[in-house]
Amino acid sequence: MRHSTRRVLAVAAAGVSAALVLAACSSGDAPAPSAPAESAPADGEFTPITDIRLQLQWLPQAQFAGYYVAQEKGFFAEEGFDSVEIVPSGGDIVPQDALAAGDVDFAIAWVPKVLGTIESSGVELTNVAQVYQKSGTTQVSWAGSGITSVADFEGKRIGSWGFGNEWEIFAAMAAEGLDATSVSITTQDFSMNALLDGDVDAAQAMTYNELAQVLETVNPATGALYTLDDLDVIFYEDTEGAMLQDAIWADTERLDDPAYADATVRFLKAVVKGWLYARDNVEESAEIVWDIASTAELAFPVGAVHQLWMLNEVNKLIWTGDDFGLVDAAAWDKTVAGALAAVNQDGLNLITAEPPASAYSNDYIAQAIEELEAEGVSTSGEYEPIEVTLTQGGQ
Questions:
Q1: Alpha helices per DSSP H over the chain
Q2: Helices then strands (H, E): number in the chain?
């Protein structure tokens, strides 16, 4: 349904080996994102961008393994970057806002959250790589509680973190014809205490994070860890409310600058190599993230086993057989349809109109893939999950 106008991307030959700056948290004296380089109008030459900042949407964890691996393994340096600062957020930074403000060069954020920002704020942002091809969101209740589908939400206390994470819930409810006011949306924290303490009937959980937190907890009735047999799990990927999640966003206006467009392709090439390495070297990559998270100013949860579980689950969402990062038009259309249908408990819509055509472009990731394949790098494939045995607290 939505196709972007193809841009002509100028690619500089910049094979620079450089030391990388590893930053697990932002600081007051962090370098500002690089300004767009001036292009020579006569021949289209420009000075390549070599220093960039990437804004994550949460704390250091294996959800973002590919970026940390690309940094640790020198893949950014291979693509001509001297410095790539990875900036985490504990909820205090909204990635798309930081990008729109010019505080960072690229940002990781869920598609529906950015669509809401584009409409409400009028900013222009472009999804240049859809990293997660599937939704990892679930709604978790205790087995036998009678909540086995979205249709069972009526009259129940449904937990959500808020911050835009609730829109998948409302989209799924809309698809079932449920009035948003028929459920009690209860704010939960980023642990699973709300479910464990009985404060909600069904808690929101990512397959790669909070679901594992329950399975890392001792069942007082048995003295052993909870298992999936103790739970009923609704996977939003199996509902009409499923929405595209982690994507790499760029500043739409800056993409008209050849230097920034070139940096976007080079950045994506390094990211693809990082996620490929994280797919094919799961244990080592989880250890890389564990080392970073365990020494970060703030991270939760940070157990080594938990990080391994997380990366194993994240890889399932990324590597589905197709080329890395391409936006699937059908999945995009489903996300937009869900965003248009979603109405929260206050009667507010996430969006009321179709997003602009510039909201996504496959041009940059397609060029990155083309260049990588010319270099002998295969950018597609399915992930073969490993077996991860959870431990108490994920330690």
A1: 65-72, 75-78, 95-100, 111-121, 167-175, 193-196, 210-215, 258-280, 282-295, 304-318, 329-341, 363-374
A2: 12, 10
User: If phi over 0 gives left and psi between -120 and 50 gives alpha, with beta otherwise, what is residue 160?
Assistant: beta
Coil, helix or strand at residue 388 = coil
**Sequential DSSP letters for 310-347:** HHHHHHHHH-BSS-TTPPPHHHHHHHHHHHHH-B-TTS
317 CB burial (10 A radius; 0-12, 13-18, 19+): buried
Q: Tell me if 316 sits within 8 A of 385, measured CB to CB.
A: yes
Query: CA 123 to CA 111: how far, in whole Å?
Result: 14
Residue 159: what residue type?
Answer: G
Q: What are the φ/ψ torsions at residue 69 (nearest 5 degrees)?
A: -65, -40
Using an 8 Å Cβ cutoff, are 84 and 268 in contact? no
Render each residue's pLDDT in the chain as its tens digit; 395 residues. 333 333 334 333 333 333 323 233 333 333 344 444 333 333 569 999 999 999 999 999 999 999 999 999 999 999 999 999 999 998 789 999 999 999 999 999 999 999 999 999 999 999 999 999 999 999 999 999 999 999 999 999 999 998 889 999 999 999 999 999 999 999 999 889 999 999 999 999 999 999 999 999 999 999 999 999 999 999 999 999 999 999 999 999 999 999 999 999 999 999 999 999 999 999 999 999 999 999 877 767 778 999 999 999 999 999 999 999 999 999 999 999 999 999 998 999 999 999 999 999 999 999 999 999 999 999 999 999 999 999 999 99
Residue type at 10 in one-letter notation: A
Asked if 328 contacts 335 with a C-beta cutoff of 8 angstroms, the reply is no
Going by the DSSP 8-state scheme, the letter that residue 58 receives in this structure is S
- Write out the DSSP string of 194-211: HHHTTS-SBEEEETTTHH
3-class secondary structure for 29-51?
Answer: CCCCCCCCCCECCCCCCECCCCE
Question: Mind listing the domains of the chain with CATH numbers?
Answer: 51-134+243-394 (3.40.190.10), 137-238 (3.40.190.10)
Q: Would you tell me how many other CB atoms lie within 10 Å of the CB of residue 281?
A: 15
